[in-house]
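Comment thread on ticket #2218

A.B. wrote:
> Attaching the input chain for the structure job we discussed in standup.
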Amino acid sequence: MLITRFLEKLLAEITAGWTQRKFFFFAWQVGLIYIQNLELAMLLFTQKRLVRTGLALVGLVLLLGCGDKKVNEGVLPEEVSGDVWGVPVENSLGGLPGPVYGSQATSPIHWQPWTQASLDMARNSKRLVWAVIVLPQQPSFVEILQTLSSDAATVNLINSTYLPILIDGDAIREFGMLSRDLCAEIGKGLQIPLMVWMTPEGNPVAWTPLPSVDGDSATKIFAQSHSMVAQTWVDDPDYVKTNSRLDQSSRRERILQHYKETKASDEPAADALRALRQLTSLYDPSPGIFDEAGGLFPVGVLDVLSMSSRMTSLPEEQRDRSFKVLDALVDDIVVSPMFDPLDGGVFNSRQGSSWTFPNFSRDCASQARVIVSLLNAYESTGEQRALDRARGVLEFVEGNHITESGLFTYGSNGSGDAGKWLWQYEEVRNILSPEELPVWMAASGMERSGNLPTELDPLSKYLKSNSIAFAKSPDEVAGLVGIDSTRAKELLESARVKLLEVRNGRMDVSYKDKDPNAVATFRMISAYATAYRITGQDSYRDLAAETLLKAKEHFAKGPRLRIYPGDGPDSLYAARAFVYAVAIQAALDVEAVTLKGEWLLWAGDLFSTVSEEFSSENYIKECSSSGDLTGLPITDSAMLFDESTLGLLAMSQSRLEALDIPLAPDLKKKLNAFPITAIRFPIVHGDLLQAELIRSYAVTFIFGKDTPDTVKEALARSPLKDVNRRLALASDPPHLIPKSGEAIRIAPDGGVSPVRSASDVRVTSLP
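C.D. wrote:
> Ran it. Output below, let me know if you need it in another format.
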């Protein structure tokens, strides 16, 4: 059957007017696939047409051709460069904000930004676009791109053949989401950086991931891929354009169909409890990780468990189960190398199956999320080390990410090379004094022979290396080495300073991010609000309010938001729906700790903009029409890189609904839907799970202008999400207007009771 269909396709193409050259080229492509990967070939031939685009074959050949074959560039640059009218002769990233563009602004590759003007350049010069999608959360992209830009022949090939575009998949989030789908189409999990060849209309032609720093040569992968793609473009550019357009249309229909088929729960409150039980059952206490959670720092899991362990309206059995898992998880993490004992920061993810070996990447927004999660975990468990780590991360952010304006940068990372972060015993012995060495070894968990488990470094690339941690407290160290606690603290501090200086000297940071970033700033506002409610320090509440005011001034342009301050094309600067979601959350958090009413109105205004700009028929689109150049209905509905847009908006919608702020009915319906898939996959839908817990099990307080300050303070220091509070309105029904000197508590079942003192607030007491 396979051969029959193959011959039918060849005959059809010949009768359609294909040249002999095209015939043999096509035959070679399919034959190569058949020989090297029969399974993939059979999948192709089960489609209604051979493939939606003949060039999908090229994408598969690219993957198959990335072995140890002899590199053959094939087509020469002059064959495909076409008319060079309008093609830039230099890198155009200079002056653009953020760590991705800043790190490549001096690259010899003639990088262009993702704008309509760049696509027009490709069209005018009859060139394909060669785009590379990267994520700033993965600093190794700098080293990977360096391998391309340091090879003169590769640079010349890129600049003379394509219109190269660099895409920040975090700021231009629709491409971060699209990368997942494109990788799935070629049978791979998400891998970034991702090279994507596109037509000047922005339709993908072929794509393949760039290898990691430790993988095959990026120049080799590019050369092999270029040979195939360029040959096809030379052969018939009109065919390439037509089929890539059809393929994009099919992709659009497939995505829309998925949204239509997504089933919502008929009993969301009960299903949320089922999802919560499933989540706690996934915890494996031996390595201290969650099955199916991936390698990210478990911020979402901490958030769900902290919330569910303190919600008195949940069944007691479920609260107890959440508490036990939360307590064990916190105990595992706070002493792991995920927290850097030299500068206090926290790493985004781990390598392998334990917390022993981090991926050494950090950014401000992720740090801020960890601060909030640790503070909430401290409230629920009383674990002092969680509070200590949260304070350490907060100090790290303020020391490394704050700008002169008081806003926060996304952040520039040190090297993605793990070897520059690890330590060997001999090296540390030469740096520290004989008195400092045993103290540091005990505190950090270092060992003479190295502490990386063999399964995490099977090739012994980091033989005898150590990842360091807050493994022991100063008091524990003092007991182990036989000195007093005060002296142990002094020696640990002097050792820390010495080692940090040495490590900083290893890092090649050619670019330092100085541009305020909306997501980082709004995340830090929520972190300050949480720090106030946990510690009671008024300075944190003041910082939250002051920073939010500055953020509104810098990132808001009328009713719309920008990712970075300043003017520029909407495809680069216009805030995606995710930015609105974190801004709304920050406004609600500040409102919750200040109780002034002003930020509640702004949150409502931002939700109105979301309804106008991002709410479509069956989904919430990530990019507004003004900034969208893909034409794809891309939505962010699962926790892939961060919390999802849908989950953040759903949590805020639940809070606004309890605070009597009306939303557009269509948007409200989308956000109220709790997906059935969350029961099976509660980790990737942890934010939607929180939203349903808020909606079904949160309590609400209504206070008056003369409610005692002690009660207001107790309300301000209550959990930000699952305890709602608002000022009584004249339009409220009589039973919801508190008596003079009192407040009102509304239970999840609608029951109303008076609040006459702070003890009546009935929320979990802080440790």
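A.B. wrote:
> Thanks. Noting for the ticket: The longest helix spans residues 237-261.
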